[in-house]
Design the sequence.
């Protein structure tokens, strides 16, 4: 019988724990996954995930799902490891395969770079997952059926609409059912599979009592939940919508690159590809938008007006605490600023004002926030925003458009920053060009080029 999850905590001292333990994981026939962890034998965590299960599932698909549940257990543990970030790990499960161990080593170090910096640690956590033979691989029948994780923002919309234009009918997937996800999925007309995730109920109380807290590589967790869902539901492809700018870090710190978007970047994608290949050969995982800049994605999204009133990227809408959850664009965070800036060169001023309810680029008091997106006297914000050069390119394009050039922030940026930069910095043509560094299968490349190439 599992130890009772602690719901109350006295003052929590992270330094008092010596090891983080992976206790057990279970996948039920109803799709409920239970993930258990512990700090020493003192604090216990229990996370519950539910994944959709069709009426009939072949035995080999259950076997693959159980193997991937083991991967999810190891990956999702990062949410609880960070409460104390102890140096030692105790695997109450068979040791991972070599590729899984490589993924975990980086996930628990570089994936926690921002967390380590914010909490003033000596550096990123140094952990080593002992590799073993791992579970025997489970080979499934080949399938090009695609599962596309969606988040209610512009990127996933561009991805699944590019696939539609190419004649592919993907199945959408989400963890949870926030309004922007629900509404963009409704407009698409595609079927959607919905999973749920409930973090250990004692985690908020521990955070309030002194546990270390901060950003975790959540995209990796969602990807693993998507993988379990994919194999149970007959999908052979997990198609992400992560762009190339996710690979750009925020800054170097104590020998490591701190990157808020590490688990969305190309390095993490490759590590997870290799891990999945050892567990379920043939299950494909890649980002359709990897070669594209945020500006190229924004240009494509601007051509999809049916979604303009439904999408939202502002994090306030997705807060776990419903009492703190926003209803739409807050207009004051780096995410809102960047999406506004990226879309502005490709949308009329009134059309963009209708989406956000205000003209952010004419709000002079927000200048410093917009300038930070371009790396002016600040590092790239800890948010899912584009490269600093993309922001410069967007301002170059806006400064050349009469409709936008007189907006307060555009005019000031042009006079104070663009005037002092060489013409090669933030060149729009170069920023909009597709990169060849990606893992998109050959059969989908025409879809990428049609949607994002011009």
Sequence:
């Amino acid at each position: 019988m599992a130890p009772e999850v602690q719901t109350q905590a006295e003052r929590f001292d992270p330094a008092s724990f010596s090891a983080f333990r992976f206790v057990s994981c279970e996948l039920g026939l109803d799709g409920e996954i239970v993930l258990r962890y512990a700090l020493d034998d003192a604090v216990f965590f229990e996370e519950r995930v539910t994944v959709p299960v069709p009426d009939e599932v072949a035995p080999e698909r259950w076997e693959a799902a159980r193997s991937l549940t083991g991967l999810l257990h190891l990956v999702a543990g990062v949410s609880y490891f960070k409460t104390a970030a102890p140096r030692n790990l105790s695997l109450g499960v068979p040791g991972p395969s070599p590729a899984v161990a490589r993924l975990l080593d980086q996930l628990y170090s570089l994936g926690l770079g921002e967390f380590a910096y914010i909490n003033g640690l000596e550096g990123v956590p140094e952990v080593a997952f002992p590799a073993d033979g791992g579970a025997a691989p489970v080979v499934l029948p080949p399938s090009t059926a695609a599962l596309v994780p969606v988040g209610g923002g512009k990127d996933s919309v561009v991805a699944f609409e590019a696939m539609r234009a190419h004649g592919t009918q993907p199945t959408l997937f989400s963890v949870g059912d926030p309004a922007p996800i629900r509404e963009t999925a409704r407009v698409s007309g595609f079927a959607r599979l919905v999973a749920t995730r409930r973090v250990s109920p004692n985690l908020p109380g521990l955070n309030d009592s002194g546990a270390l807290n901060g950003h975790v590589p959540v995209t990796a967790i969602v990807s693993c939940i998507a993988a379990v869902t994919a194999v149970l539901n007959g999908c052979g492809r997990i198609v992400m919508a992560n762009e190339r700018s996710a690979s750009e870090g925020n800054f170097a710190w104590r020998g490591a690159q701190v990157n808020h978007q590490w688990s969305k970047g190309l390095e993490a994608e490759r590590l997870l590809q290799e891990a999945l290949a050892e567990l379920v050969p043939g299950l494909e995982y890649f980002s359709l938008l990897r070669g594209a800049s945020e500006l190229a994605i924004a240009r494509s999204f601007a051509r999809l007006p049916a979604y303009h009133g439904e999408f939202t990227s502002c994090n306030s809408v997705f807060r776990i605490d419903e009492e703190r959850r926003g209803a739409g664009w807050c207009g004051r965070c780096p995410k809102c600023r960047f999406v506004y800036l990226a879309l502005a060169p490709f949308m009329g001023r009134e059309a963009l004002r209708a989406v956000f309810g205000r003209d952010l680029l004419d709000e002079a008091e927000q200048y410093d926030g917009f300038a930070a997106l371009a790396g002016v006297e600040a590092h790239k914000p800890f948010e899912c925003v584009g490269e600093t050069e993309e922001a410069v390119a967007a301002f170059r394009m806006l400064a050349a458009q009469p409709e936008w050039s007189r907006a307060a922030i555009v005019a000031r940026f042009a006079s104070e920053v663009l005037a002092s930069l060489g013409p090669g910095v933030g060149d729009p043509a170069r920023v909009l060009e597709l990169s060849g560094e990606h893992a998109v299968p050959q059969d989908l490349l025409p879809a990428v080029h049609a949607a994002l190439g011009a």
